Amino acid sequence: MTENEAIEALRLSGGLEISGRPRRCAEFFEGLDIAIKALEEIQQYRAIGTVDECQAAMEKQKPQPPDIWGDGYDKEGNIIYDMYDCPGCGQSYEIDDKYEHCPECGQAINWSGFENL
Ligand SMILES: [Zn+2]
Question: Is the overall model pTM greater than 0.85, yes or no?
Answer without folding.
Answer: no
